[in-house]
Amino acid sequence: MDNRRNIITPGISYTDRQVNLANEQRIRSNPQTIKEQIYEAAQERWGVEEADAVIWIVNKESSFRQYIKNGNCCGLFQRLNRCSDSILGDLNGQIVEGLDYIQSRYQTPSEAKRVWLEHKEKTGHGWY
User: Fold this and answer.
1) Cβ neighbours for 112, distance < 8 A, ≥ 6 positions apart
2) pTM
3) pLDDT tens profile 45-79
4) What is the torsional sign of CA 78, 79, 85, 87?
5) Is residue 3 included in any domain, yes or no?
6) What is the CA radius of gyration of the chain?
7) Spacing of C-alpha 112 from chain mean position
8) Number of domains in the chain
């Protein structure tokens, strides 16, 4: 008898649960899957053209790497001073927070992209 059975969900072994968690983490950390989730959330909020601008920004900022750190900036949207492990581990939270930031500061992703490009032209470093 396997003593590692999941008490909460009878019939699923500890090993099966670990494999399922590992697969879930792999899927969530996959840049293509992350890109799709960001695109869907941005499209729901602003539509297709603005979703394309969000994808452009996240690609420039993090290449869709959820756990990336760059000095005091980290995550998909490279948010300043938001680098705790709990924030980095919360993919949905990063997406919502990043979209909220763009909306509150720039109103639209196209405007955030314009600012990014303007900074790049002036300083050689893009940021928004």
Assistant:
1) 53, 57, 102, 105, 106, 128
2) 0.74
3) 999 999 999 999 999 999 999 999 998 999 999 99
4) negative
5) no
6) 18
7) 17
8) 1
